[in-house]
Amino acid sequence: MFDLASKFNGAASESQKALFLAAGEAMLARGGHGSPGVFIGFALPNIAVMIVSWVMYKSPPFGKLIAITGLAASFLLLAYVCMVTFIPFAGSFAMLMAVPGGLLYMCWMILYTRKMLILGR
Description:
- The protein is mostly helical and 121 residues long.
- The protein is built from five helices and no strands.
- Helix 1 runs antiparallel to helix 2, helix 3 runs antiparallel to helix 4 and helix 4 packs antiparallel against helix 5.
- The termini are far apart.
């Protein structure tokens, strides 16, 4: 995108600017939310949270509540990402998973951070 922006700024004619503008819009459309181009970027953090939560589930200092919250949140958000990426017109149904997943994810972050601060003392 930076390369296209530089070329757009250095374009000599309006037709060249229109060409670079169209190329930039095509790149944005291809890599937008719900496209396979960004699937890995949305899926990997959720997989990482699943792994961390599973390790928390096995370790006594964190407790089961934090681990189960993280597992549920990451599962729901991963299901959402898979739905909007690979199932056409699943937007409304996918949002039913995204909302509780996002809320659980925020709760997990608060519980996790609080526990880390307590363990750090």
